[in-house]
Amino acid sequence: MAADYFLLIIRWMHAVAAVAWVGGALFYWLALRPALRSEAASGGVAQRAGREFGQVVLLAMWVLVVTGGILAVQRLSEASGGVAYASVLAVKVALAAWMFSLALSRVSRRREADTPRRGRLGVAMNALGHVNTTAALGLAVIFLSVVLRFLVEEGA
């Protein structure tokens, strides 16, 4: 019984961390960045927002790694954690690792988020930039979480 409550709390922490990170990335991508570009907002606002959100991302990453590890071990040790489950989980972990590497490279570079790149390659890099890619990957990871839940419920 206590183990069930522990896993419930772990799942909740995992979900909250994912929602904070992906939701924050979507908010930045769809609302904050366009607002900062359209207004005569100072660069300091964007830098402060980026610094504050960076702290949220780092905390979310740690929570996701720890809780994800616990949940993966728990699920794979059960009979319901079959080959299909392990395969989808591996893709989910790979996409999450890509998100983590984007976030960590961002922290190490400390580059302003909206510095435009020039040329054809620069335009492509802007389109697939850090925030866009993180948001898209995050949505894919959340979708794979739903697929994993479906596999468990179906006993696959």
Quick synopsis:
It contains five helices and no strands. It has 156 residues and is mostly helical.
Please give a structural write-up:
The chain is built from 5 helices and no strands. With 156 residues, the chain is mainly α. Helix 3 packs antiparallel against helix 5 (130-154). The longest helix is centred in the first third of the chain and has 37 residues, at 2-38. The chain is elongated. The model has no long low-confidence stretch (mean pLDDT 82).
Which features characterize this protein?
single chain; 156 residues; mainly alpha; 85% helix
Helix and strand arrangement:
Layout lengths: L1 H37 L4 H34 L6 H27 L9 H9 L2 H25 L2
Q: Any idea how many domains? A: 1
Structural class: mainly alpha
> How many β-strand runs?
0
Give the CA-CA distance, first to last residue: 25 Å
Low-confidence stretches: none
Average pLDDT number:
82
Number of helices: 5
**What is the percent of helical residues?**
over 70%
What percent of residues are in strands? under 5%
What Rg is obtained from the alpha carbons, in whole angstroms?
A: 18 Å
Secondary-structure element sequence?
A: HHHHH
**Main sheet?**
none
Morphology: elongated
